[in-house]
Amino acid sequence: MPDTIPEPPAGRPRRSLTADPARFAREVLEPVRAIVGERGLLTDRDAMQPMMVAWRDSWEGRVPLVVMPASTEELAAVVVVCARTGTPIVPQGGNTGLTGASQPHGDDTEIVISTRRMNRIRAIDLDNDTITVDAGVVLQTIQEAARAQGRLFPLSLGAEGSCQIGGNLSTNAGGVQALRYGTARALVAGLEVVLPDGRVWDGLRGLRKDNAGYDLKQLFIGAEGTLGIITAATLKLLPLPTALATAVVSHRVV
């Protein structure tokens, strides 16, 4: 992995959003502030810094603005502003990835949209064995909520105490139980997604036998935010195991 974020391809220069501060404030910052309020904005470089750096290596980005919507409606309205003004977006969840994909470039050419404030558990349906959550809910929180109801949400990985489910689904996370339960895409019943123009695609349903046309939710799982920003998901739950056994297998080479 390179030590610095690569430059854009030749012939496709990026425009720094801070090259014209007055225009950026007028066309992007103030309209976004009106949508999310002061709690939903970060413009201080020190406050934004943890969201700019990949924890494993030296990749570091730089943006003039981090936006933290509190709802799907706010996020969609922010995306409308960005689409209208041609402002590039980097969606970010828990920023726990290992590839640098959730970090922006280092030249103030993008803004980050973080889902950290979208952290509601919307519903648990025990009859259907599903849980519906916002994209910013931490994976461990979902596991604990399922366990409290005698259910299992089997997606499990090292960063489960800080990664967010929206990022897990956007990257089709595998985790340590993928061989038994499948990757993240196997655990999704429905999605809610904000599209690049700000429209909301509502595929948030828990229907188990759904053979009505294209399975559009699968397009967004693993797409890493390139086709839309996942804002909520209905996830499949399983019965909680009643017994656990640990085996140690030794193999001696003669």
Automatic annotation (TrEMBL):
Q: Name one GO molecular function term.
A: FAD binding
One example of a Gene Ontology biological process annotation: respiratory electron transport chain
InterPro entries with a match to the protein in the record: FAD-bd_PCMH, FAD-bd_PCMH-like_sf, FAD-bd_PCMH_sub2, FAD-oxidored/transferase_4, Oxid_FAD_bind_N
Residue span(s) of domain FAD-binding PCMH-type: 59-240
Q: Identify the keywords attached in UniProt to this record, alphabetized.
A: FAD, Flavoprotein
Which Gene3D superfamilies does its entry note?
3.30.465.10
Q: What is this protein called?
A: FAD-binding PCMH-type domain-containing protein
- Organism from which the protein derives: Teichococcus rhizosphaerae
